[in-house]
Structures are given as C-alpha cells and as structure tokens.
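Colleagues,

Please find the record for the two-part complex below.
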Amino acid sequence: MAKKDDPRRFLHPATIARIARLDLRARYVETNLRSHLVVDVSESMHYGHGPLNKYEYACTIGACLAYLLLRQQDSVGMITFDQNVRQVLPARSHMVHIDAIVKSMDVSRPREKTDIEKILRQVCESVQSRGLVVIVSDLFVDRESLFRGLEMLAHRRHDILLFHVLDEEEMTFPFTGTTRFEGMEEMPHLVCDPRALRDGYLEALEEYLVEVRRGCTKMGIDYNLVRTNDYLDAVLSKFLHRRMAMRTMPGHKKAAPT
Amino acid sequence: MEFFLNPWSMVAGGAMISAPILIHLINRMRFKRIRWAAMEFLLKSQKRNRRRLIIEQIILLMLRCLMMVLAGLLLARYIGYQPPPETDESGVRIVPGTLHVALLDDTLSTTDRTPQAQGGEPDAFSVARKRIKDLALLAAQSEIDQYLRVVLMSTQDVLFEGDPKEGDALNQLETKLNTLTPKLIHASPREGLKKCKALLEQPPLSKEERQAAAEEANKTDSQGEKKDDKDKKEAKLAVKRVWYKRLYVYSDFRDSDWGRRVGSEGLYRLVDDVRDAGGNVWLVDAADPPRQPGAESLVVYHNNYAITDLRPEKRIAPGNSVVSFTVEIANLGGDTRERLLMKVFKDGEEDFTVNPDVTAPPPGGRVRQTFEMLFEAPEEGQQSKQHRITVWLQNVDVESGLLADNFRHTTLEIRRDVPTLVIDGSGEVGLQPGGDTRVIKDALESAKDSETTKVVAAGLTELLRDDLEREYAAIYLVNIENLKHPKPENKGEEDLPLERLKKFVDNGGNVVFFTGGRIDVDYYNKVLFKEKKGLFPVPLEKQVTEKLSDEEIEKRRNSSAPKIYVLDPEHPVTVGIAPLQLSIPDLIISQYTPAKDRSDWPKAARKEEEVKELITLANLKKVNDATRGQTQGLLKKLPIDDAAYKKYEPLLSKHKSLIEQTLLEAKADEMYKVANALEAMLNDKGPKPKEKDNVSLVEFWSRPEQEVQDLRENIVNFRRDALYGSPLALTRKYGKGNVVAVLTTSGTAWSGWSGGKQGGAASFTFPMFMVDLQKFLTAGGAGVSQLVGEKYEITVDEKLYEPRMRRLVQGEDAENKKGVPPQPGIPAGFADVGELTSQRAPGGKLVFSFAAVAGPGKQGVERGGINIFRLKPKGKNELEDRWVAFNVDTENESNLKRAASNDVSRPVERPFEGRGTIGWYNVEDPPQDQGMPSSKDKKNAKEDLSHGPWLFLVFLLILIVEQALAVHLSFHAKRSEPAA
C-alpha cells in the first residue's frame, strides 16, 4: 500500500509494478559493476629507471584496482595487449579471480604495439555490456588511432578511465653527454647530445600530453597522468577521492560506481 | 725554418694540427647507450634542432683548431721560427751565418789598472777578456750559424776558433782566455788587423760541412758507401752559405797606436777594407774610464809615470871609476807633484849612495836625472865584470796606470881597458903626426879619465869579426874609400864588412865617419846613404870644396866671425864646445865634403830617425850694400806705426834702432852681429818676463796674423842664410845605434881643428869634442838594452862556439831574495831557464834566436830584466856570459792617452750598398747588428701581440669557451656509467 505522502499513490498499480521492475534492474546494474582492466604490456612499457618500470607500475595499478573491485564483489575482467590483444579474461566477481588477473599480466617477451585502434576495437567487441574500462598504458602510439579507439569505447557508453603511465626520465629527460638512444618498438636509434635536444624533447612531449589530455577531456574520459616514481597508494587514493567527489557534483552524469 | 723541415718536427706539428679534429671525433665516438621508449619526441626534437647542433659542433671544432693555431704561433715565436728561406737566382737556398773575428789587444798598455774603488775587472786586459766571453755567449744564443775566431794582437796567433754553439766550445774559450796573460810588449794593431782581415776572407765550414768532413774522415773509401747516401749528403749541402762578417777590436785604443797621423793610414786602410767588403767593424774599448758619448775628442785616461831611458855614460867603463847614469822619467798624464822617489839597485842590492829624491816631471813632460855610481875593477885574473843596474820609481801609479814601466834595467861592463876601433883609409900614414888616426888616438887616450881607453887601429878586415859589438865600444871610419871586402874569398863576401858594420850599429853600436880625400862619393851616396836606408846620414856633393888659399886662411883667422855654429847646444856631442863656439874664430876648416842641399834630404819616417845637424860651418856672408838693403827691407816691414800692435811699438822701435846701429857699425865680416841682433829681436821676452803686464816680442811673433808670421819667416830665413853654411857634423839613429858623420878630416889635412899648420887656439876644443863624442859613442843607452817583444838573435862562429847555450834570467823578485844562497855558477838573483840550441846559418855561423813572444817550441823574452846568455867556447873551460838588459817599450806603450773617439770611428763618407759600418760597441746598450741577437734587439724588437697580456687572455678565453662547449657537448662518464 502506498503511503499518504507517497507520490506513487496516484499511479496505477500495474505501472508501479513496471517501475519497480525497472528500478530493480537499475539497482542491479548499479550494485553489480562490470569492469575491465586494459593493460599495455608492450615493449615500450618495459622502460624505467626506478624500482618499478612502467610495465610493473601499470600491472600494480591493474592488480590494485582489480583487488578493490573484487572486494566490493564487482566483476573484473582483464585484457592485456601489445602488438595484439595478448590475453582476455572475462569479468568475474569471485575473489579467487584475482590470481588469474595477476597471472595474465605476466609477459615474458614483450612486443611492440603497432595499431592501437585495432586493439581498442577488439576490447570494444569483447566487452559487450556497458561498464568500466580502465586503460593503463604509456600511450606511445599514433594519436589519431588512439582517439578513434577511445571514441569507439566512449560510444559504447563505457566509463573509461585512462592511466597514462610515464617514467620520470621520460618526463624530465635528464640525460647529459653524448648518448645513443636506441628506440624500442622498432624506432630508429639516435646518437646525440641530450642536453642539446632536451628543450625540443620536452616541448614535443608537452604538446603530446596536451593533445592526449584534450582528446580525453573531449570524450569524457577520466585521464590520469602518473609517473612511475609517484607513490602508488597516493596515486590511487587521490584517484578514488576524486571519483567520489565527482559523484556528488551537480549535473554529474550517472556513471558506473567505482 | 730548418726546425720545421725536420721530419720529426713535421710529425709533431701534424699531430698537433690534427689533435683538435681527433679530440672532436673521439668525443663523438664515446657515448652511452640507452634503450628509449619515447623516441618519437626525441626524433622530433632532433629534427627541429639539427641546424643548431651542427653549428655548435662546428664552432667547437673551430675553437679547438684556433687553439692549436695560437699554441703553434706562440711556440714558433720561441722555437726556431725564421723567415722563409731566401734563395738565389738558381734556386739554391741561402743560409746565413755570422763570422766573428775578435782581435784581442794583449800588449803592455792593457795592463793599465782600474782603481780598486770602482770595482769590476782589475785591468783593461781583463775587461777585454770578459767582453769576448760576453760576445761568445751572445753568439751562442743566436738562431743562425755562428763562428768565432779570436786573434791575439801580440803574436797574431789564433787563440780560439769554433762555433760557440757547439759542445763545450764556450768552456774551451773561457779556459783559454782565463789562462791568458797580457804580454809586456808593444805590438802594432796593424799586423793583428791584417791577420783578422785574412781570417774574415776565409769563410768557415758550416756545421753540416764540418760534420760531413768529420764523417768523411772517419769513413774509409770502401765501396760500402751507397750512392743514395752520397746523393742525400750532396742534397743536404746544396745550400749557399752567406756569412755576415763582423770584426771586433778589443783594445784600449791608445793614441800612440790609433791616433790619426802621418803613417797611420795603413792601419785605417785595413779597417776600411773590412768595412768596404761588407763587414761591420766594432770597436770595443776596454780601458778605464769608459768613453763618454759626448766627449768625442777628449777621452779621459789614467796618469802614468814611466822610466823611458836609463843609460850609463859609457857602455864599457874602466874599473874603480865613477860612472854617471842618466835616467829619463816621463810624466805621461796630468799628475802634479814636485818630487819622486827613485830607488837604484846595483846587482840586486839597493845602492844607498844614490839620492832617491828626484824632481818630478811636469804633466806631459820629461826630466833627465843623472846619478853616479862607483864600480870596482874586475878581480885579478878577470878581464871584465858585468853589473846590472835597476831603477825603480816608488809610490807612483799606485791605483792605476802601468807598473812594468816603473822599472828600468841596464847593464854595465867594467873592464880593465876599453878598446875603440879606428879604421883609417890611409893605413899606416894615419898614425903619423897629424894623421887622421893619430889625432883621434891622441885626443882620446890623453883625456882625463880615459886611462883605460885603448884605440886600436886596424884595417877593414877587422870588421869581419862576429863579436864587434862585444869587442869595441865604438868604431871610427876615417877617410875610408868604401867598405868593400879587400880580399873576398867567395862571391857575395864583397859587402860583408858593410853588413857587419850595419849589424853592429843596428844592435846598438855607434860609428863615426870622418871624410877626406880618399872617399868614393858615389859609393857613399849609393851604398852608404842609399836613399836614407843606409848608414850615412846625408847625401854628398860629388866635388869636395876647393882648398882655401893661405891668404884666405889668414884672413879668416883674423876675422872675429865664428867659423862654426853649434845647432844643438844640449846634445851630448856638442855640449862641451857649445859655450865656446863664438870664442874660437880661428878655427879653420880649409876643405870639406859638402852635403847636398837640405831640401834634397829625404824625410825620415820616424822623428827619431831624422838627421840631426850638430855643427854647421859659418856662411861668412859679408855685410855689404846688398845685405844692408835686405836687412833694411825687413826692418821697414816692422808694423811700428800700426795701431793694432801699439803695445809692441817701444820694443820694436828699440830693436829696429839697435839693428840699424849694428848695420852701421859692423865690419864686412861681421854679418853674425846683424844676425844676432835680429835673433835678439825675435827672442826678446820683455823687461818683466815674470809679470802679468809684461809685453814681449816673443808674444808678438807668435800672433796669428799672416803679416806677422810672414815677416817672422823672412827674418828667420835671412838670419839662417846669413849664418849657416854647409853642415859639418851630423848624427842620426840607425837601428839601436847612432851614426855620426863629420864632413872633413879628423887629421890636419883638411882641417885645422886638430892642430897642425892651420890650427890655432881653436885646436884645444878638438879633444873636448872628441871626448864628448867618445862618451856619446860608448854610452850604453839602447845599445845594451833590448826591448821586450823584439826578436833577438845571437850569431856566433861555429868554429869558436858550441851549438848550445844556457839562458839565465833575472828572477822576478830577485831583490826580495836576499839571503838566499845563489846556485853554483849562477849569479845571485838569476835563475837558469834552460838550454837553447842554435840553428846553422850560411857562412859557418850559429844563430840563437828569440821570438818576439815565447810560445810552443820557441823561446822569447817575456818581461823586463837582465838576461845572461851563457855560451860555451870550443876548447875552453870558461863560459862566456853575454849580459843583455831587456826593458819594456815605454815609447810606444806607456803613454796611456787615448785616441779621440771620432778619430778612430769616422762616419762613412760615401755609403753604398753592401758597405759595412765602423762604430763603437756600447756594452751597456749593444748596437743592433744583423746576424746575432743582442739585448737591444730584444729591447727594441717590434712590439707584437705576444708582448702584451691580451693574446694570452684571448687564448685563455678561447680555452674556457672551448672547455665549456666541450663539457656541454661531450659525454663525460660518471663512475657509475661506463663509456661505450
């Protein structure tokens, strides 16, 4: 029975029943998040000078997020890629699934990534239902392909989280003296005086980051630039707080809970 | 340039030049490897900065190259940079070098000491020695070839020859110079310059040529030598050597040697020849004080006293007689003192009987002092005994000047009798009363203190003796037709008597000629006079004078006019008769051999060798209208009325009236009175000669106005013509001896001087004249004194003497060695310096020779003192000692007056290309001279960038920029990151 002050007292009980079903479905979707972690395990991710290289850092991020999601009984899937999609784990909500996720991130012979659009299309195809897609990569790919891939994901109304992992050296380019830079992922090598090129490098890098950030913002992708020397707990904590704050913001599009 | 052509230098230079490029490339090759993910941005950056990077690298490379260039320039400045090699027309490389020839004056005058208070080198010789060392050091620093030759002025020997840059050449030169001592001799710079000129004309071998010659000498002519080596050697030597010629004269430049005067043209011609041949002549004055640039004509010099002469009145004196010695002291400077302290030593012991206090000569003047000493007769059994006498001027030249000329030595032989040789052309006739020999013998042997004089009459063959100078004190040649050998055995012996006589006089003997009717005038003129080169002092007229008639003789005897005039009243020969010349009007010379006119007498090269007229015959001009007219004419010219000579007017008027009065009163034969009156007018010293306002005619006649001088000359000529006729007695020096010629007979044949029919009261003066003449002839003087530095020979007959003799030398400090027992057979104060061997000479003679300067294999007398030459006669046990005194050459060396700077170094009159220069070498500020470095070169070198700090600052700046850029652009490995 509808209470006196219940606005639904004027509705037909059949309508109310129908709404109740819809509400139930919504509640189901809200409380049972299907999330997919897309981790870049290509050759370029194996660069790093600190305790963790980009690959290790990215895997740690993925593992942490998977653990947190599984803890709240959400289902988590895992997709790793380099030249192609290397491994796809369907989303599960059992806590034991964490082992499979971690194992799937272990790569012995990394390869270069060539066509990111293709990979993201595969991701798109493999994740049928709307959910959370967390991409962890250094994004050393063609920007146009990247944006086209991300657009595909965004078009499927996935809530996309992008962790852009870069090494500290890649951000600051601190090298001195004549150096031979041997390109990963079939890039050419270059002997140069790094200090002579530093400014140009940082300028190009900044352009790239701005372009990526702008593209992500345009598509409503939650973009996070992380450095491998950042404390991981701080990075995740900051990220989660920001996500929670975003939910309370007026006009916030209802997104999958995290 | 050869430094850079050296292959090793080329390699080093190439390495240096390529160093920056290599450094650059090496730095490019050293890099670290990084596998990099974000290559996209790096490539993009590299693409954007490509141009800037290339420019930076190029700048770095250029900076490094610039550094190398700068370093090379700085290095080249100090190591062997030379202008590009010059080549001649055929393309042969011209290699320059400098040939230095240094003439070192090591004669007596260079012992002139520097006052100790001034410090520095003790004497001029040491200064010269040091300057040569400085020259060698300077030459050793030169960049081009150098060759040095050092010539000694005394001997003209080459002391050193070599390249100062080679090995221990400098040490060798220093050792030789340090052991060198000045010679106490006189040596003309002309001989040294001749030698230097010859050495300058002999280009030395270059270093390569010397090495090649040494290698050639070492290498045998075996076939092992490859042709390639030979070609290489020839190619190496295919250069043209050009030697800059430099002549340095290290001397004290005394006026006596270097003053411009008649006779010094030859010396300066040699210097000019060197200059005209392109050589530079540098005059280095070593004497103290240094020449001042402003005082060209007046060069300050040290005072110096010298004993210029010491001679006994007789060379050979009888025993137990008092012998008078004459010492001449010269004050050759500006020292003014009244008295001097003179010590006299006899046989090494000071003789306290001689008054040591003597009058000092005025500045620039000389005084002659006489002192007497008693000599005992030789001991029983000895025919003669030798004594040595030394005079020492004490307390003069204490700080500066020469010491060697404050001593003078002489010897005196004391004999039981003193022989004089008379050779009479008339033979035995001359010994008859009135004969030529007889009057000489009588005059000499009968004179007081002449007990030991022994006149030996002999023929011409006596002149053939070897020991003429030892045997005879003097030789009289009386009315000798000629000096030809009467009986020559071999060809060439005809002139032997003349040669012996010349040698006798040359060695200090004295000879007297009396003419007469027998003499061959042609022989006298052609052989004995021989254009001034012979013994006889003047040429003779062919015809003797006509004999005076008896009336004329009587007329002259009655005339009061003097018949002879003594022209030099102070000469030892005429000193006795000079006061009596006007008192013997009855002296009749009825016939004589007239000498040719005085204008025909050739001038002697040296003043001392000039003929000196001792006595001249009176002209006996009459006082007549002609001579009166001439005298009046002269008197009219006297400027009595001239206002310019007003103050002389009283004296001139007085003398004019006196002369006019004499002209009136004089008899016809009393022209001498007129001449005397004229002479009185010329020599009137005024009434108050010692007062300032005195007016004298001597002053008047010395006025510079031409009219006064012309008048004076006319009066002098008139007086001389009026008084003096043909010369009667003359003398001249020949070698070290004297020749006296009396142009009439000694006997009574032509002359009444020695008595006879024509003789009168005047004949008492003949013995006086002869005794004075004999004293002059037997006086020691230079006859027994040799000069240190002159060649000396003793010639003996090999039949009479052994070919060896010993030489005893007076010890240096003989006077100080009192009490030291003499060695057996050696007189006290002497030391035996060794044995000498003679050389054979033609005619069976033995010659013992002494060089001017002792050296290897030759003996010489090096210092003043007595030398005893001890000969061993064959077949006798007794040794024969010949004592010879050696003294330093005071006439040429003691006067320390220095030649005017502008006299020695005259500017070039007509400079032309290739002509060198003559100049004074200023030690403090050496002149810039091509071919060798000098301190002035460095001082006056053109300033360039390297003299300032800016070049080095720029260098430093470039270095800093380069380093900064290099650090900026290059890889510097850290410990943790190894280089690739």
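The first strand of chain A starts at residue 34 and ends at 40.

Comments are welcome before we finalize the supplementary table.
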